[in-house]
Design goal:
alpha+beta, 34% helix, four-stranded mixed β-sheet
Length: 148
């Protein structure tokens, strides 16, 4: 069955693309969740208009994200934690801690945009990636110090 995607779907296609999918997948998942529409002439025109407005909105968001990336890239966050011997922390520094520290410095970044493969468990300086947009990332320096 041919459908036109209204959203980006991993391993299937991007917004506005016309793809062939199994009829059951289209009927039971894509169409009810409004992720796709049937490939008719009228739907093609509507989806093309949606795609154009989405591209304009996407360009604006990307520009804002690039500006924020320049500001956030120069930020150094200092977090104090209790540590034992060998500079291992009692506990860890998580994405939530980093997001809270950024908020204290007046940078509103959502927790899910901070990419930390595993929590920080040692003292020292760590680089953390913040994905502000699909194509824009910034690196924040997190300095974990010993709490007195």
């Amino acid at each position: 069955m041919e459908v036109i995607l209204r959203e980006d779907i991993e391993q299937l296609g991007a917004r506005g693309e016309m793809v062939n999918v199994a009829p059951g997948y289209a009927r039971n998942y894509l169409l009810p969740k409004r992720l796709a529409v049937a490939a008719t002439d009228s739907n093609r025109k509507i989806v093309e208009q949606e795609r154009q407005s989405h591209l304009r909105k996407e360009a604006k968001q990307k520009g804002e994200a690039e500006e924020l990336a320049k500001l956030v890239g120069a930020v150094t966050i200092t977090i104090a934690r209790k540590a034992g011997e060998g500079d291992h922390l009692f506990g860890s520094v998580t994405v939530g801690d980093i997001a809270d520290a950024l908020t204290l410095q007046n940078y509103n970044v959502e927790r899910r945009k901070i990419q930390l493969e595993e929590p920080i468990r040692t003292l020292g300086e760590h680089k953390v990636t913040v994905r502000l947009h699909r194509e824009v990332t910034a690196e924040v320096t997190v300095n974990v110090i010993r709490e007195e």
